[in-house]
Target: Lipoprotein
Amino acid sequence: MTRTSLPIAVALAVSAGLLLTACGGSGSNSDKSTSSAPAPTSAAPTTTAPPTQAAGPGAPKFDLPPDITIAFNGFGSTDPKAKDALRDAKYAATAILEAESQIRTAETPNVKRYFDGLQGAKLADSVINYGKSGNVATGTYRYYQPTVKANGGAGTLTVSYCEDQRKAYDKNAKTGKVHVTTPSLQDFRAWTFAMHKDSAGDWQVYEYKWLQGAKQCQVA
Model:
């Protein structure tokens, strides 16, 4: 049950010219996109420890409300470079939700850390505009089927993964009313992060795109 208002990621993708081919729709789903890839039948991902419990030297701390649950599945690797990129892709995805979880007036530290300057600034602007609707994010967000590929540039990688928003919604920040919607294909998204390592050793997102209504991400 995807959130009904225009999410941060949509505004960013549009502003950066990265949104994939859109299809028609009705009501609040008119901005959504589709894919021609076949639908897999794998089970839903399992829940991991909350990202607020991130451990390790230099790990970020996230200020997430108790009504947001984040689950990551398959974001591990024995390859050191892939392992670090997947870890920071998780942090970047979590940073977006952390930003959306409250009405914001400025860029959050974790967005600034995991998104390259221009992308971070655009994301901050989108967060502020999203907050003007009076809504914040709530519900459960699942991320799964990650892959890591070298993208041809020295010190750069591409991380792709799926997202399930069937139990993710908009919530009115003042009243607490949750805008519940009916589950559909539009709740599944395919993400691609182009990432490079910054001077502090973090893998930052310097470009990304996403596809809403991604059949290749659909799970039971």
